[in-house]
Design brief:
With 313 residues, this protein is α+β, with helices and mostly antiparallel strands. It has a single domain, classed as DD-peptidase/beta-lactamase superfamily (Beta-lactamase). It has helices at residues 19-44, 100-111, 140-148, 153-161, 166-180, 203-214, 217-223, 288-299, and strands at residues 58-61, 73-78, 84-88, 94-95, 117-119, 137-139, 200-201, 227-231, 237-241, 252-260, 264-273, 276-285, 303-306. The strands form five sheets. The protein has a five-stranded antiparallel beta sheet with strand order 3-2-12-11-10, sandwiched between helices. A two-stranded antiparallel ribbon has the order 1-13. Helix 2 (100-111) crosses helix 5 and helix 3 packs antiparallel against helix 4. The longest helix has 26 residues, at 19-44. The radius of gyration is 34 Å and the shape is extended.
């Protein structure tokens, strides 16, 4: 008779009771690690600020009509929002004439100080001149007035000639500045705007350049000046007058005239209407002042405003 053999009893490991404690310790460690990481992330995160954005009122014509103008290109732009309210031939490249001196002023003001003394290095300059004699010395600030009010080509060239590297380097800087400002349809060939075939821009680019220039308070003061007496270092004086016929009329506060045989009449204008500044430009015009007045009439008491709801960020 066979004996039945009993299976040996399985003995429990004496360490099994430690497993729950080990799991608890691991869990506690994970919780502490998670808390530490969360604190580090919070310390490195930028604070979220709730703020209201300032939104400029959006200008609209209350009543629009097509202005009669002789200019081949024209634009009306709101300075604050850069909104184009009216435009004719926005991408047509036209000669700058003396409106190139706006860029000449901006580039030179970045380099020269008001009291820097410039020396007239040439004579017989083409076109409109103040009449400075070769070798005369005059403060840079007075030279700006000589360039912007009567549109003196001798003043524009004197500024460029006194720039490090001379006229060529200065004109290169003008074009560098145009690229910096994303004026893709603009090119300058000389500091005075005499080269009709090579100095060109569009009404939109010129409006944007004019808007930028008017943000400089000293530039704005210069182009709004009717008359200025300039003095050379030797004591000679020159009385210069602003040739902008519209200055001071119908809210006009500047900015620059231009005219050559190739460019025709050019005029960029800043006007204040209802406390806001508007920029107008006419190019290749046979009546630059009359055309500009037509654009200004379109603005006068004819603007309403759309105000978007303020958004919180």
């Amino acid at each position: 008779m066979k004996k039945t053999q009993k299976s040996p009893e399985k003995r429990s490991s004496p360490y099994l009771f430690l497993i729950p404690y080990l799991l608890a310790v691991i869990l506690a460690g994970l919780v502490l690690l998670n808390h530490s990481v969360a604190q580090r992330i919070e310390q490195r995160s930028l604070p979220v600020r709730v703020q209201s954005t300032q939104i400029e009122p959006y200008p609209l014509f209350t009543f629009f009509y097509e202005p009669y103008i002789t200019a081949q290109g024209a634009v009306i732009m709101d300075d604050a929002t850069k909104r184009i309210l009216y435009v004719k031939s926005p991408t047509l490249r036209l000669s700058t004439a003396s409106t190139a001196k706006i860029m000449t002023a901006l580039v030179s003001m970045e380099h020269f100080k008001p009291d820097d003394v410039l020396t007239v290095q040439g004579d017989g300059y083409e076109g409109t001149v103040v009449g400075f004699g070769k070798g005369e010395q005059i403060r840079f600030d007075d030279m700006l007035y000589a360039m912007m009010l009567p549109s003196g080509n001798d003043a524009a060239y004197t500024i460029a000639e006194n720039y490090p590297g001379g006229v060529e380097r200065f004109v290169g800087k003008m074009n560098d500045k145009a690229q910096e400002l994303h004026l893709e349809n603009t090119h300058f060939a000389d500091p005075a705007g005499l080269e009709d075939d090579s100095s060109f821009t569009t009404v939109v680019d010129l409006a944007r350049l004019s808007s930028l220039a008017m943000q400089d308070m000293h530039f704005a003061q210069i182009v709004s000046t009717r008359e200025k007496v300039l003095s050379t270092i030797a004591g000679n004086t020159y009385d210069v007058f602003n040739i902008n016929k519209l200055l001071g009329v119908n809210g006009v506060i500047g900015i620059k005239t231009g005219q050559t045989t190739g460019a025709g009449g050019v005029l960029t204008t800043a006007k204040i209407e209802d406390g806001r500044m508007y920029i107008t430009v006419v190019m290749q015009s046979t009546d630059r002042f009359g055309d500009t007045q037509s654009l200004l009439n379109l603005l006068t008491k004819n603007i309403s405003y759309f105000v978007p709801k303020r958004q919180e960020l």
